Amino acid sequence: MNRNDVTEMIMTAKIAKGIKWSxxxxxxxxxKEWVTSACxxxxxxxxxxxxxxxxxxxLPAEAIPVxxxxxxxxxxxxxxxxxxxxxxxxxLINVYGTTFKELIHEEFGDGIMSAxxxxxxxxxxxxxxxxxxxxxxxxKFLPYKTY
Length: 147
Known about the structure:
Blueprint: H1 3-17, H2 21-28, H3 32-39, H4 47-56, H5 63-68, H6 84-108, E1 111-125, E2 132-143
Antiparallel strand pairs: 1-2
Helix pairs in contact: 2-3
């Protein structure tokens, strides 16, 4: 059993049982964004989190250590995403990536925004012209060091 097998079992159970990510996250006491990422194979879970996940999604015991293993992150199936929603994020980085880079460097100096010390919040915003997706990303600034 590998991580992809476990992710497929989680998604199958989620659909069959009508489980919402926000409900899973509430049972963990964590953000839905992190819990969803962990269930999709992008984060390693603690033993307690893995056991809870196995219970919620009716996974076999063999899935528990797989959920605790450090994953191979960035597991999109192609270099350029073909899923329309994911492709829009790729497009957003292609169009605004240099703007993000320029503004971050102007504000903070030479460095990067961490994806390790990172927090994300996704919510729906009501709007008269159609609801909007609001995503807030917050990552620790890590300056490059001179040595």
